[in-house]
Automatic annotation (TrEMBL), chain B:
Topology relative to the membrane: Multi-pass membrane protein
Listed name of the protein: ER lumen protein-retaining receptor
Native source organism of the sequence: Solanum tuberosum
Chief place where the protein resides: endoplasmic reticulum
Family of the protein in this entry: Belongs to the ERD2 family.
Lineage of the species this protein comes from: Eukaryota, Viridiplantae, Streptophyta, Embryophyta, Tracheophyta
Gene for this chain: LOC102596589
Length: 10, 215
């Protein structure tokens, strides 16, 4: 379930 | 989340834990650049401004807290711990890192995804991370042979970003929209900076000799 967030990476 | 990103995050976590272990177990920070640690603390604080506003996943939040906490703990230890601070190579760790801060910030003002405070600081942290290792690499060059924990720290740090490049390739191939050009280009520059270190690290590992970096 990937958020549409642009910055879902650390 | 894909295996490359998870491997990258775990390698990054290991690099930080190796460093904390070195400092805690040996009560010494010889060979470690305080300037690089301070730059990393700035990288994490400016990148995770959305820590309390955007909840992405428990994993994401926990890892952000671990990275911010550990980087600040390392900086605190190297600056104020009465035993550890004595072993800091102050006269060797003289990289003028204001230049790195200034260039990264100016670049972030020019190149970002959206002109908002959070996005400019996010881009700033991405650019800063790419060059944050420079004071540490310069310190390793100056202190000649690398004691193995400092070398391992840099090795894991380089490996983490290399895994992230595989992650970006994977996401580029599997997701219809790819909006990570800033991270991707910056990550390539970052990994390239480690390339020469990796070369000497591999040579020393192959010859089973102490790592000798050319002065």
């Amino acid at each position: 379930r990937e958020q549409p967030q642009d910055h879902d990476e650390l | 989340m894909n295996i490359f990103r998870l491997a990258g995050d775990m390698t990054h976590l290991i690099s930080v834990l190796v460093l904390l272990l070195k400092i805690y177990a040996t009560k010494s920070c010889s060979g470690i650049s305080l300037k690089t640690q301070e730059l990393y603390a700035i990288v994490f604080v400016t990148r995770y401004l959305d820590l309390f506003t955007d909840f992405i996943s428990l994993y994401n939040t926990v890892m952000k807290l671990v990275f911010i906490g550990s980087s600040l703990a390392i900086v605190w230890c190297m600056r104020y711990h009465r035993v550890v601070r004595r072993s800091y190579d102050r006269e060797l760790d003289t990289f003028r890192y204001w230049i790195l801060l200034g260039v990264s910030f100016i670049l972030a003002l020019v190149l970002h995804e959206k002109f908002t405070l959070q996005e400019v600081f996010w881009a700033f942290s991405i650019y800063l991370e790419a060059v944050a290792i420079l004071p540490q690499l310069v310190l390793l060059q100056r202190s000649g042979n690398v004691d193995n924990l400092a070398g391992q720290y840099v090795f894991f740090l380089g490996a983490y970003r290399a895994f992230y490049i595989l992650n970006w390739i994977y996401r580029y191939l599997t997701e219809q929209r790819f909006t990570r050009w800033i991270s991707c280009v910056s990550g390539l520059v970052q990994t390239a900076l480690y390339a020469d270190f990796f070369y000497y690290y591999f040579i020393s590992w192959k010859n089973n000799a102490k790592l000798q970096l050319p002065a």
